[in-house]
Specification:
86% helix, 16 helices, mainly alpha
Length: 511
């Protein structure tokens, strides 16, 4: 019997302990939830309250310059007063709630958190009125702040990048740095318009700054390549024009280049590139035309003697038909001496002369003359063939011909055309105008590549001498790999690639 009562007593004590533990655990959980809810409400209110203070500061700045904003300012201050009163009331209850939670007062804590929740909803309702009035102004204000921040970051980045390239940018460093500082200083008018509430004017200023900044960024990104073409490549290319004994054209191109140099820092990157492209095109066309003129002049020197010999013979044996042909021959021959005529016009006149000679075969004496003419003409063609052959082998056997896939393709094309000429005993050179044009055009381009490659070799030697004399390139595996690449280019006579690769190595080690 005593054991039975002892068992009941133990069961009762254990049950009571469980109930008490459950009560304590439940109280702890409830207080924890209340604490998290309290923190959420109060933190949100603090954030909103701080934002409202910033908004009032902005509206005070704007209303100082724009009297029309005074009414909005007064409304916001009235609403802000109500919000502050509510915030103070919530703050007081928040402190009381913290005290209740610390003392484990569950019921008081529950009542207080519900009261704070009610005040929080009242605060949100009044805050919505504040937001409706100020949000449009706030968005415009913040957008301007964001744009200004972006401009400041970009100009700072450009300034730092310029300072790292100070040694390599000889002609543009100070100009670009001053332009960057000028654009950075243009932010002051934006701030002035922002503080006066002139958001439209501020946005116009931002658009103007953005346009100038984009142009500066584009110029900065292309300036190294542009400086190389304007101050290194073009002077070398222009100097080679002295070899053509055309002082007028040399002075014309040189004056254009000097003008470009003098205006370099005042032109947009598009204008500089367009001018460089036009100068390179004019130089290339001039050199091509000079080469064609050499071929044509050599032909005309031989042709003139032959022409007068034929005309003299025709005049001694002239009849009515020959008489008319002689006049036509003389007229066409005069066309060959007209300076304004293009090479195509001269070739057309030569073709007419030959046709007239052939049409004069109407008697035995003319036939005999034609035979002699044919002999002379064959000699002339043989001389021309010799020149063509000489130029052909000059190209394909030249040590300065780059060994690239494009050049090899052109050499193969030239070889095919030359084979066609050989197979036709060079008759196609005089009969097939399209084939002749392709042959001369390909030959001219390859000769130009040879001379250009020779120029790059000289530039490479100077750059190589400068690089190793300066001793700023260290011996490391990366450099050795790069020099192996250059050796491959040199073995393939690709001096242009070798020069550019060495130049990039120097830039890398300088930076």
């Amino acid at each position: 019997m005593d054991l039975k009562w002892l068992f009941y007593i133990l069961i009762s004590v254990f049950s009571l302990a469980i109930i008490i533990s459950f009560f304590l655990l439940t109280r702890k959980v409830i207080l924890k939830i209340i604490e998290k809810t309290r923190e959420k409400y109060f933190n949100n209110l603090q954030t909103i309250n701080n934002t409202n203070k910033t908004s009032l500061e902005h509206i005070n700045i704007i209303s100082a310059s724009d009297k029309s904003m005074s009414e909005i300012k007064n409304k916001l201050e009235t609403i802000s007063t109500s919000l502050n009163n509510l915030f103070n009331k919530i703050d007081t209850n928040n402190e009381y709630l913290i005290e209740r939670i610390n003392k484990k007062k569950v019921l008081d804590s529950i009542n207080t958190i519900f009261f704070i929740r009610k005040l929080y909803k009242d605060y949100q309702r009044i805050q919505s009125s504040f937001d409706i009035i100020f949000t449009p102004i706030s968005k415009k204000w913040n957008k301007i702040d964001e744009d200004i921040s972006v401009f400041l970051d970009k100009t700072l980045h450009i300034k730092n990048s310029l300072l790292t390239k100070k040694k390599t940018l000889k002609y543009s460093f100070l100009f670009l740095l001053n332009e960057n500082n000028r654009i950075r200083s243009n932010i002051k008018p934006v701030r002035k318009n922002q503080y006066s509430g002139s958001f439209i004017s501020a946005n116009k200023e931002i658009q103007s700054i953005n346009s100038e900044l984009n142009d500066l960024i584009m110029k900065f990104n292309n300036i190294e390549k542009t400086e190389y073409f304007v101050f290194l490549y073009l002077p070398v290319s222009i100097t080679t024009l002295k070899n053509y004994n055309d002082e007028e054209f040399y002075n014309y191109i040189h004056d254009k280049w000097k003008k470009l140099v003098s205006e370099f820092n005042h032109l947009s990157i598009f204008e500089i590139h367009d001018t460089v492209r036009k100068l390179c095109k004019e130089i290339s066309e001039f050199k091509t035309l000079k080469f064609e003129n050499v071929l044509l002049d050599n032909f005309l020197k031989n042709f003139e003697n032959m022409f007068f010999a034929l005309v003299n013979y025709l005049e001694k044996n002239k009849n009515n038909l020959i008489k008319n042909n002689i006049e036509l021959l003389k007229n066409n021959f005069q066309h060959l001496k007209v300076k304004e005529f293009s090479n195509d016009d001269i070739l057309e006149a030569i073709s007419k002369i030959f046709n007239l000679f052939f049409s004069s075969i109407d008697n035995i004496e003319i036939s005999e003359l034609l035979k002699k003419f044919q002999e002379n003409y064959n000699k002339l063609k043989e001389a021309e063939v010799t020149k063509i052959t000489s130029y052909f082998f000059f190209v394909i056997e030249n040590k300065f011909l780059p060994q690239t896939s494009d050049i090899n393709e052109e050499v193969n094309k030239l070889s095919e055309l030359y084979k066609m000429l050989v197979d036709s005993k060079f008759q196609l050179f005089y009969k097939d105008a399209k084939l002749k044009e392709q042959f001369i055009k390909t030959l001219t381009h390859l000769i130009k590549q040879i001379y250009q490659n020779e120029e790059y070799l000289e530039m490479y030697k100077e750059l190589e001498f400068f690089a190793f004399k300066s001793k700023f390139i260290k011996n490391d595996s990366k450099l050795q790999d790069s020099m192996k690449v250059i050796d491959i280019y040199l073995k393939n006579q690709n001096y242009k690639k070798a020069f550019k690769t060495l130049k990039s190595i120097i830039k890398e080690y300088r930076s």
